[in-house]
Design brief:
Number of strands: 0
Strand content: under 5%
Order of helices and strands: HHH
Shape: elongated
Radius of gyration: 21 Å
């Protein structure tokens, strides 16, 4: 990555370090959003964003450390993150539909 040009390697390292620090702060803010909420949908979106940012962090580390296997780790993490969001959404929809059905039953019994 810029082996022939003097100073370019250092510039890349500074750029990558700044990007990693920024992404780490953003992950912490997303974690805060996932904890605070207020709705379940906000939490699911925050978890999805955290997964995406962690993938970018892994990709940047793969470039900085010049380790090719980290790209494979990034792809595997992407699949796991995708499955986690799908499972969370399915659980949320199940709870939502159960609550909706319960309210409908209470309405029918309360109105009769």
């Amino acid at each position: 990555m810029g082996k022939g040009i003097p100073g370019l390697e250092q510039a890349y390292n500074i750029l990558f370090t700044v990007a990693l620090i920024f992404l780490a702060v953003m992950v912490l803010l997303c974690l805060l959003r996932a904890i605070i909420g207020p709705r379940i949908a906000d939490r699911i979106v925050a978890v999805n964003m955290m997964g995406t940012m962690v993938m970018v962090i892994i990709a940047i580390l793969a470039l900085m450390l010049e380790e090719g296997y980290l790209a494979d780790v990034c792809l595997i993490y992407a699949m796991i993150s995708f499955l986690a969001v799908i499972v969370l959404t399915k659980v949320y929809m199940g709870v939502y539909l159960e609550k909706k059905e319960k309210m409908k039953e209470e309405e029918e019994h309360g109105g009769a």
